[in-house]
Design a protein that fits this description.
By secondary structure, the chain is α+β, with helices and mostly antiparallel strands. The chain has one domain: Gcn5-related N-acetyltransferase (GNAT) (Aminopeptidase, 3-Layer(aba) Sandwich), CATH 3.40.630.30. A seven-stranded mixed sheet has the order 1-2-3-4-5-7-6, sandwiched between helices. It binds coenzyme A. The site of coenzyme A (COA) has 27 residues, from strand 4, helix 3 and helix 4. The site of coenzyme A has 27 residues, from strand 4, helix 3 and helix 4. Its EC number is 2.3.1.256. This is N-terminal methionine N(alpha)-acetyltransferase NatC. Keywords: Acyltransferase, Cytoplasm, Nucleus, Transferase. One of its GO terms (cellular component) is NatC complex.
Length: about 220
């Protein structure tokens, strides 16, 4: 999906505090009743890891329509992680979930929080009969790539100069219904106009941007 922002430090070291038990982390769905507090906390957390903060309209676009696919991690009343997602038909052949934003507070990394949040979002998508889940991440973000590959995501394509700062992205896809033939799993794009040529990939990245609100590139 799209966003002008990219991570400042894509592979931060794991800084999990020794005295925090995984059991002390609680996970909650986005609660529209708590919007003022939760929205500002989500923005604060996501903005920390971006070179440019997203407009509030980008957050509202996701949270107002797919708040049930967004989850928050808390520790002793402190907001420590979040995942923001959506689910939509993709090219009339698949129902595609999309991980738009994922971040964990630096000192809470390495505790499995991001994995848990992403699994919760995926489970919610499965309940809604999703065929697949996609996201983009910078090719240099080894922490995120390892995390997603451990969850079963596959590298679908490389998007040349996908972000406005010039860095490239991988599109990662998790196929949830293996029995579907490729053309029904929404992967026609890989054999289609982009065909792996750099120039075309760039054009495709532009096309992908135009599908998203506010011309934003996401850092799922
Ligand atoms: C990427 C990020 C969300 C991971 O959060 P986390 O809660 O620490 O992740 P988890 O503890 O669930 O890690 C799951 C797996 O991811 C991989 N991973 C996580 N952090 C890593 C790191 N710094 N280096 C290498 N692999 C890493 C590991 O395989 C890890 O499993 P393991 O601990 O059993 O080896 C976190 O580093 C972050 O917020 N980064 C900045 C924002 C960002 O890049 N978001 C993703 C955009 S696509």
């Amino acid at each position: 999906m799209a966003a002008t922002a990219t991570t400042i430090d894509p592979t931060p070291p794991s800084k999990a505090p020794l005295n925090i038990s995984r059991d002390a982390i609680t996970y909650h769905p986005w609660d529209p009743q708590q919007e003022p507090l939760q929205l500002s906390q989500i923005r604060k957390l996501i903005s920390k890891d971006l070179s440019e903060p997203y407009s509030i309209y980008v957050y509202r676009y996701f949270l107002y329509q797919w708040g049930d696919l967004c989850y928050i991690a808390m520790h002793e009343g402190k907001f420590v992680g979040c995942v923001v997602s959506k689910l939509e038909p993709h090219r009339n052949v698949a129902l595609r979930g999309y991980i738009a934003m994922l971040a964990v507070e630096e000192e809470y990394r390495g505790l499995g929080i991001a994995s848990k949040l992403v699994r919760m979002a995926i489970d919610a998508m499965i309940e809604k009969d999703a065929d697949e889940v996609a996201l983009e991440t910078e090719i240099s973000n080894t922490a995120a790539i390892k995390l997603y590959e451990r969850l079963g995501f596959l590298r679908s394509k490389r998007l040349h100069r996908y972000y406005l700062n010039g860095s490239s992205a991988f599109r990662l896809i998790l196929y949830l219904k293996n029995h579907l033939p490729p053309e029904e799993r929404g992967i026609l794009e890989d054999a289609g106009c982009c065909g792996g040529h750099d120039g075309h990939s760039h054009d495709h990245a532009e096309h992908e941007r135009s599908e998203q609100p506010h011309d934003a590139h996401m850092i799922g």
